[in-house]
Amino acid sequence: MGEGGKGPVTLRGQTLTREEVQHHTSKDDKWVVIDGHVYDITQWSQRHPGGSRVISHYAGQDATEAFKTFHVDLDYVKKFLKPIKVGPLRDSDQQSKQIDRDFDALRETAKKMGLFKPSYTFYVLMTAHVLILEVLAYVTLWCFGTGWIPYIVSLGLYATVQIQAGYMSHDSGHLSITRTTKWDHLLHHFYMGVLKGVPPKWWNHMHFQHHAKPNVMHKDPDVRVEQVFVFGDKMPIEVAKKKRSSMPFNYQHRYFFLIGPPLLFPVYFFVTTIRHVITRRLRLGSFWIVTFFVRFFYMYMPFFGFWGTVAHYFAFRCVESHWFTWVTQSNHIPMKIEKDEAKEWVPLQIHATCDVEKSAFNDWFTGHLNFQIEHHLFPTMPRHNYYKIQPLVKSLCKKHGIDYQVKPLLTAFIDIVRSLKHSGQLWENAYHAHHMG
User: Fold this and answer.
1) Within a 10 A sphere around the Cβ of 152, how many other Cβ atoms?
2) Within 13 Å and on the Cβ side, how many CA atoms surround 141?
3) What is the secondary structure of 291-354 as a DSSP string?
4) At what angle do helices 252-259 and 409-435 cross, to 10 degrees?
5) 182 has a pLDDT exceeding 80
6) Rounded CA gap, 248 and 406, in Å?
7) Lowest mean pLDDT among 48-52, 310-314, 354-358, 400-404
8) Which residues pair with 38 in a beta bridge?
9) Residue 5 in this model has a pLDDT that exceeds 80
10) How far apart are alpha carbons 100 and 19 in whole angstroms?
């Protein structure tokens, strides 16, 4: 049965068309296409390890490239497809586009080059530097007291610990540190749960949606923020037509500095993580949050007292929030933000991302997310190999006429503000045209 009961009744095993698949997009009836076969993910989506929404965002569409890209062991995950198979797709609907075939060839080339093999030395050194910085953040206060200079030094060190641990948890969440599901999941719990006090399942829920449909309105959680910001060229018009005037979006490039970077971690992420573990009854996630705060208060209450430690927590989260927001949003906010048009994997990812120039500092400061294009195309690739695949990605884009953008770090930051100003002006013009004309 299709969406709203209007779709055709289909017997399992019969040949299907893309038009038939496109009827199955409702909450209670979801089909996807993978490698020329149709699968009913209605029930399976609730058990999907990456979260129900990430797979549901492809309902009624071809999810082949997303399926291949997200999973490191395809032979294993394909076992879960057999019980939910509906039938084959009609031969004429199975013809892949040249860009998909070229991307598949590029992925195989990357495998032959060994670019999916992690450097354990790299990750051991990155982990060591995080742990050393955490010790130094504490020792600074223990040795030099809580005066302004040692406090600021300690605060900077601890914020650096948090952001770098976040990059490591990002790597393990994408299964790129060991490329073994079991061990990367354990590392994910260590970096995200132990070091940051954040439930890994919350990260999975949010981040995989972003990768599945980056900059896609109503699907990517990173751009589902129309209560406070409007992005791109289309969202401002849509919001203006609905007369959502809760915020003066024409000034968003100014109030971004007040409620964007300063409050993302201390307020929004804090509230959403707590809500996530409560509403989904995540015992392990609750455990990581509690143990982090117990350890944090045990270490820092002797220096600051209870309320001082509370203030210290929100202070380092605020610094971390600035760092994270400017780094991550510089790759996305200035890029195309559109409704879901079921684009092929390569244009979907590259239209939503850009790179920042390579340098030793930029690599460290951004956790190699200055190679955002390569990361989005190959999320399971170890980040220290992004620069090696970059020339081949550029060649692929040139062949297919796709704009590949690389910016200096400061320019990327400035473009966030420029983009916010542009989108705010679009909203203001559309709002006046529809409601005040």
Assistant:
1) 12
2) 21
3) HHHHHHHHHHHHHHHHHHHHHHHHHHHHHHHHHHHHHHHTTTTTS--B------HHHHHHTT--
4) 120
5) yes
6) 32
7) 48-52
8) 33, 87
9) no
10) 20
Structural tokens at position 225: 């923020």
Amino acid at 170: H
In eight-state DSSP terms, residue 38 is E
pLDDT above 90 for 435: no
Instruction: Output the DSSP codes for 58-115.
Output: TTTSB-HHHHHHH-S-HHHHGGGTGGGEEEEBPGGG----HHHHHHHHHHHHHHHTTT
**What are the DSSP calls for 191-214, one per residue?**
IIIIIT---HHHHHHHHHHHHHST
Tell me the β-bridge partners of 18: none
- CA 309, 311, 315, 321 dihedral sign is positive
Residue 420 has pLDDT above 80, yes or no: yes
Other Cβ atoms closer than 10 A to 197: 20
How is residue 189 annotated by DSSP? I
* Residue 92: band (very low, low, confident or very high) from pLDDT cuts 50, 70, 90: low
Residue with tokens 């969406």: 3
Q: Return phi, psi of residue 11, to 5°.
A: -90, 140
